[in-house]
Design goal:
This protein is elongated. A hairpin with a 5-residue loop joins strand 7 (about 200-210) and strand 8 (about 215-225). It folds into 2 domains: about 10-75, Winged helix-like DNA-binding domain superfamily/Winged helix DNA-binding domain (Arc Repressor Mutant, subunit A, Orthogonal Bundle), CATH 1.10.10.10; about 80-260, 2-Layer Sandwich (Beta-Lactamase), CATH 3.30.450. The protein has about 260 residues and is of the alpha+beta class. The protein contains 9 helices and 8 strands. A 6-stranded antiparallel β-sheet has the order 5-4-3-8-7-6.
């Protein structure tokens, strides 16, 4: 090891790990060879090295391969290092300096939005969104920014019944068809908007952050004071495109930092 000729082998070995990580269960060497367009002899050689290192497990009775304990240990170590929060922190602080409003990093936790980071301006306003707080994902801009990029079946599994569609104010989707229409509009627009869904008098815009498989892994949002001057207190049609552009830039940079990609 150590020569430049080892680099292609390393890349192919990592590609095998990604194939295994993307499957619901163990797969055969033939499937791996086909997916990566590799000769079978090369595939078996790489698998043998990965098995010896503990990153892959061979199931001889099934003639299949799955991820090994070393891969699990590596993933656990990754989580312990809080990489997403560490990479996002400077971006959120920069965003707050630019827009003068509170910014969050959130992830999906089941059917809820879970906030991991909160960065506030020098004169912050009191918000219900704080680190560790969980809110219904369909109500928050950050939650819907991620839901908009999930398959319809996944969204239905997260929100399977009308009981999940709780309201905090008199605004927000009340059922799955309403949510789907809202998600479709936000997916076309490129960002999600929440106008008084969580707390009356506050609005948010959010954009999704994507992993290497173009899956939404997190969202960056900005929350600010806003009152709709409309009859009956109905939500106005404002979508704050200028602010959304800055949020989108931060989300895109975080996607790049975690080696993610958009579809």
């Amino acid at each position: 090891m150590g020569g430049s000729s080892d680099v292609p082998a390393l890349r192919r070995g990592l590609a095998i790990l990604r194939v295994l990580a993307g499957r619901a269960g163990p797969v055969s060497a033939g499937v791996i060879a086909r997916d990566l367009d590799l000769p079978r002899s090369t595939t078996y050689h790489l698998l043998a090295e990965l098995v010896a290192a503990g990153f892959v497990t061979h199931l001889p009775e099934e003639r299949r391969y799955g991820l090994g304990m070393a891969a699990f240990e590596l993933g656990s170590a990754y989580l312990r290092h809080d990489p997403l929060e560490r990479l996002a922190g400077p971006l959120l602080r920069r965003l707050v300096d630019q827009v003068g409003r509170t910014a969050h990093l959130g992830v999906l936790h089941g059917g809820e939005s879970l906030y991991l980071i909160k960065e506030r301006p020098s004169q912050p306003q009191t918000l219900v969104t704080d680190v560790g707080v969980r809110l219904p994902a369909q109500l928050t801009a950050s939650g819907r920014a991620m839901l908009a990029h999930l398959p319809a079946a996944h969204v239905r599994a997260l929100l399977p019944s009308s009981e999940r569609f709780v309201l905090r104010t008199d605004r927000g989707p009340r059922n799955l068809p309403e949510l789907r229409r809202l998600l479709a509009a936000e997916r076309r627009r490129g960002w999600a908007v929440e106008d008084g869904f969580v707390t009356a008098g506050f609005a948010s815009v959010a954009c999704a952050v994507f992993d290497h498989g173009a899956r939404p892994i997190a969202a960056i949002s900005v929350t600010f004071r806003h009152f709709c001057d409309t009859p009956g207190g109905e939500p106005c049609a404002e979508t704050w495109p200028d602010l959304a552009s800055q949020v989108h830039h931060a989300a895109t940079e975080l996607t790049t930092r975690i080696s993610g990609r958009t579809a």
